[in-house]
């Protein structure tokens, strides 16, 4: 039986059970008034613990197991795990399941900060690499096989590779080729596919990672696929070398013992909808509307057309600082973008994006282009730099003493904090990395940071 059916049946049953269990709102018998006004009753009515007939996320045997199996069939995975704590928890789980203390792991530096968290917890040693950088748009492109071939030749002790595809800005990597390379080198291939949860349900330039040969992927259902924050999935591919039991054991290390039935029900509803003909038609309609949106863009606006996920609208306006354009969109048109760098603005769309919204964005862009406001873009694009590692992320995290000093006095010291802009959440400097003059320049150019925590040695 499905989770949604089970919850509905609970209320249909005339002889309702009398629960002396958590959660203490007693399925909405008492809801704090402000929460009731804002959220309504239904959420609380769907909120149960592991009562009779329901299941247990630590060792699913009933309705959760059934749903996992059903979802796994839809995705053609060996196993799919349901996550109610985001791709963040999926990435950490995969890393803890695959990596031990001091294991070498190859990571594309444009990773999400959760990968750093996984390094701290696992004690693994990162080998960072930078994918190709497009300075006209200030974005990292997807990873190519050629980006990692040489690194693999130099290191024969790499246990796993972690990349993000599609990237935050939508670039796809050469997943098939990289998967093949990893197979030959006996390297576990993990893909952060947090932004790719729609790939399974429509026509895209890339197939989902586990169907391209990755051992595992994580997908955030909330980012593009319509589920609430922070619903996500871990997929283990049919031929994966990762142990399913180890993943379950690791999830049990980091997960809450109180699974959220409203979120699990939302995952069920979301995936079944996306898989239905209604869901697939809705996605195909969205992709058509995005094509129309592109066709109707004003001449002075340009959209990124690389090997990209079309739901990510990366746009720049000729001779215009993207942040100035974004400010005008914000203030005058009340349109908020996901993120802007010096060159381009990122607008994230997803299954819930209406054509009306796309038209409003297009009209605002037309108005901006007509006025040719504009502050020309003189800012130089600065590529991220790979700092030298002095300590592993775990050693740095555990270092006992920190000092806060002016950034100008930090040359030669070891960083003790995470320096990044969020979004996009790509690390500029991590704990355990050495501060040199180029990093200081980069931090000054890209952030407002004046002081920095350093390790006292
Ligand atoms: C590339 C990438 N990976 C992982 C995550 C974490 O996803 P979640 O919010 O589902 O934990 C994010 C979130 O911004 C992301 O952008």
What key attributes describe this structure?
457 residues, Aspartate Aminotransferase, domain 2, 4-stranded antiparallel sheet, alpha/beta, 3 domains, Ornithine Decarboxylase, Chain A, domain 4, 15 helices, binds pyridoxal-5'-phosphate, Aspartate Aminotransferase, domain 1
Could you give the topology of this structure?
Elements: H1 3-12, H2 33-39, H3 42-45, H4 63-75, E1 79-83, H5 86-98, E2 104-108, H6 113-122, E3 125-129, E4 133-134, E5 139-140, H7 145-154, E6 158-164, H8 175-184, E7 188-192, E8 216-220, E9 232-236, H9 244-254, H10 261-275, H11 277-295, E10 301-303, E11 312-317, H12 322-333, E12 339-340, E13 345-348, H13 355-371, H14 393-398, E14 402-406, E15 419-420, E16 427-429, H15 437-446, E17 451-455
Pyridoxal-5'-phosphate is lined by residues 86-88, 112, 114, 164, 168, 192, 194-195, 220, 230, 232, 425.
